[in-house]
Protein 1
Amino acid sequence: EVQLVESGGGLVQPGGSLRLSCAASGFTFSSYWMSWVRQAPGKGLEWVANIKQDGSEKYYVDSVKGRFTISRDNAKNSLYLQMNSLRAEDTAVYYCAREIEAAAGTSDYWGQGTLVTVSS
Amino acid sequence: DIQMTQSPSSLSASVGDRVTITCRASQGISNYLAWFQQKPGKAPKSLIYAASSLQSGVPSKFSGSGSGTDFTLTISSLQPEDFATYYCQQYNSYPPTFGQGTRLEIK
């Protein structure tokens, strides 16, 4: 059974940093693109970033470029999102997701999400 | 960025009904279109990818069609568990973008 479990969310002040983690199990982690998708309270879904199987390619939505860094450790079956210079508009539930085999950019399995709140 | 527009934004229907949700892309995306279902407080669930391919385990009451800029999600014989918010997403080009969502409510 595919499982994705996020952790690391919490309350952080504007300008602060946070590192999210996602522990994957039930599939060969190193064979899949992985991504982060977020959802602000009461709002729709926003794709944030993704990373290729070997980490050689990474893509970001413009609003987080230069502030967020996606990474992975295939030996630990783990995905990460380092978030710096956080802003109030980054407040959201962040989901870790496995991308489909057929094409990067969309996902078939999602974690339960971790809430990030940016507030003073 | 490619803009995805869903219609309607909300929809009321009864158990047993058949409903259709439309998604329009601001430019052609071939068939790189996915549909998701989300219930309150839960993670999204993937229903369809490549416009019409059903994800494993998703019942055949869900069907998708379209290509280019216009797409539809049809749900037949609505059951109580189908009432949720539905999102389309294009993954033809970066960044992947979602529609604003369609809230399907019980009439």
Protein 2
Amino acid sequence: AQTVTQSQPEMSVQEAETVTLSCTYDTSESNYYLFWYKQPPSRQMILVIRQEAYKQQNATENRFSVNFQKAAKSFSLKISDSQLGDTAMYFCAFQLGEDSNYQLIWGAGTKLIIKP
Amino acid sequence: NAGVTQTPKFQVLKTGQSMTLQCAQDMNHEYMSWYRQDPGMGLRLIHYSVGAGITDQGEVPNGYNVSRSTTEDFPLRLLSAAPSQTSVYFCASSYSWGATPHGYTFGSGTRLTVV
């Protein structure tokens, strides 16, 4: 079965600190895409960052970066210089290939609280 | 603004009632989907469509119907509402189906309560 595990239900850090959210997944496919989505209290789901599994280079988007370890099936998200606006639920997801109809498999989420 | 528009934002239904959640996008996306989000769980796929006239079931399709008569619209119908369908529903769309995915664009969600 294809699964995504986010082992940290909730985390909190002080503003300006760096925080890392963990994500592990399980799939037998070799080609897939990984995503981190952010869901603030407004409920809007926002794409934070994406990573192609065939690329070894870790993706980076401003203060957000990932540590992708394909062999370990790990895809953690690092947020540098955290800001109050980063407070949100963060979901890890991966998208399968054609044989699985390109479905997105989601983790249960990590609630991140940035304290002033 | 371009994006995915969902209506209504909130809805309360009585058990056995039917209703339609509306979803429209103006980005000419081929792929559209409906998810439900329950506390402590990730999003679960209900139905999806890869283009006008083509729909398929996701992980949790029972109790829901969809149709895709146009590229823009993808309504979700609850046939006979049950308390187990109390959830937050998201519509999402994407350019890519089979090509390099650019991530999904989500609507703002519909909070549905069935009493």
